[in-house]
Amino acid sequence: MNKRMISRLGSVGLAGMLLLAGCSGEKGSSSSSEGGGDGKITWMNILHTASPPTDTVVDEIEKKTDTEIEFSWVPDASKEERINTAIASDSLADIVTITMMDNSSVRNAMKSGMFWNVEDYLDDYPNLKDISEDVRKSASIEGKLYGVPFQKDLSRIGIVIRKDWLDNLGLDMPKTTEDLMKVAQAFTEDDPDGNGKDDTVGLLDRSDLVYSSFKTLATYFGAPNKWDVDDQGNFTPEFETEGYVQAMDYLKKMYDNGWVNKDFAVMAKTDQQQTFAQGKAGIYFGGLFDGQNFQNMAKGIQDDMELDLINDMTSTDYNKRVIWSEGNGVGGVLAFPRSEVKDEVELKKILQFVNDLHDEELYNMMTYGIEGTHYEEDADGLYKIIDQNLWQQEVQPLAASRPRETGYESKDPNPIKQKSNEMIAENADYAVLNPAVPLESATYSSQGTELQKIITDATYQYILGEIDMKGFKKAVQSWEDQGGKTIKEEYKEAYKASQ
What is the DSSP secondary structure assignment for residue 39, as one 8-state letter? Predict the structure, then answer.
């Protein structure tokens, strides 16, 4: 067994976590921390790949930070159950990766004092000091910060478009939603691939109001990111704004004219991406990084496919460049249980370790691996993976553990991947945050998912022509009556308390 794997994939049950808790007597230190200790740090971490990393890169991280790391890997698919169980039994580790910040059990545990409040410590460490106030606030619960935030890109959202199809039809790159609709029409009706068949569609969409086209389009039309709050602290949900309605009308027109796939309301993400890679559509909303993914998926099918990216779309009525942010740039926190981290001395040692993980050298190691083994860097500063299989085994599982994924200068040899990196960084200047992220609403926690289904169903029904605006407003009123009004009031109260 790997000496750092207290539990392998799929075996992080309660017994494993109890073992982890029992092994955490003396906590870790790093080369620049104060005091003694044996340098051991236990870390309950989330695994997003099929297998945990082998020792190669972890060994180097240990050398750089003067620690011994014992991982307990929790598969992403079962993280909610496993973390909830560990919290309930108070069988945790020195560091716990918590990504479900809206989970009621997690939030209640944090508010109960189970984890250290680190807000007064961050400024004592050079890398942690750089965490922005927006990120700190968004990662907080009732104004207190119960862990070091995972700093994520503010927004990775944009549009992938067939550049070769634009060229074939003599069309310019669309800059507005009006331009985009004209392109979608042409991609549907004017044989953009030149095969003489009526077998393409402009926009290829899927059954997801958030990560497909809808939320991004609504943002272009001026809708807030889930919630808007005025100077008096009154909260308005996005679906009660004109921008949301305009996005519905926009997609309804696309649907009525056949410029978006007719089955978009039931299409799964994997089917959508495979269909796009097969050359059946020309416009895709989603992650800007999907440009490279489509290139890889299209090999042997559409080898001559030429793609481009868009991240500066505006609408005629809302001529302001914006893009919505998922989680306000917070991917969760690295939390430190008081049951494991007994006092301030131990806390400071572990915070120094987390600070060290923010260094660019360690970021590159957890992203690309070891130079000469996993990647090469050319004279232009481009990073190229030289052994894909080895990288997947030894490096890729660590990527999601990087406490910061923004602000580094590494370059990718794939032009469209490099362009997506640059556009994602650029998006930060135009990101619209969700003001409700750090706030508490008991009704939202208990009923939010059920209530959102009322709006989601009504939105699809409106776009598909099954209800009119009167029917949509009736659904909104139902949302209000069944708990939405209470959510607004609770957010208002929480917002005022946080000011």
Answer: -
| DSSP H stretches of helix in 358-441 | 360-367, 388-394, 415-427
Cα separations in angstroms, 228 against 42, 57, 137 = 41, 44, 17
Give Cβ neighbours of residue 339 (< 8 Å, ≥ 6 apart).
21, 90, 92, 114
Residues 128, 350: Cα–Cα separation, whole Å: 12
CA atoms within 13 A on the CB side of 332: 18
Backbone angles phi, psi at 149, to 5 degrees: -65, 140
Q: How many CB atoms lie within 10 A of CB 389?
A: 8
Decide: 434 and 325 in contact? Cβ < 8 Å: yes
Residue type, 256: D
Q: What are phi and psi of 192, to 5 degrees?
A: -65, -25
For residue 432, report the phi and psi dihedrals to the nearest 5 degrees: -100, 120
Cβ(309)–Cβ(160) below 8 Å: yes
CB-CB contact of 416 with 291 (8 Å): yes
- Over residues 265-324, the pLDDT tens digits come to 999 999 999 999 999 999 999 999 999 999 999 999 998 999 999 999 999 889 999 999
3-state secondary structure of 429: helix
Phi-psi category of residue 66: left, alpha or beta, with phi > 0 → left and psi -120 to 50 → alpha: left
Inter-residue long-range contacts of 438-441, CB under 8 Å, 24+ positions, other chains counted: 438/137, 438/138, 438/139, 438/140, 438/141, 438/143, 438/498, 439/491, 439/494, 439/495, 439/498, 440/107, 440/141, 440/142, 440/490, 440/494, 441/487, 441/490, 441/491, 441/494
List, in sequence order, every residue forming a beta bridge with 337; answer none if it has no partner: 115
Considering just the CA atoms, what is the radius of gyration of the chain in Å?
A: 24
Whole-angstrom distance, CA of residue 491 vs CA of residue 229: 9
pLDDT tens profile 204-213: 999 999 999 9
Largest separation between any pair of C-alpha atoms in the chain: 75
Reported as a pLDDT band with limits 50, 70 and 90, residue 39 is: confident
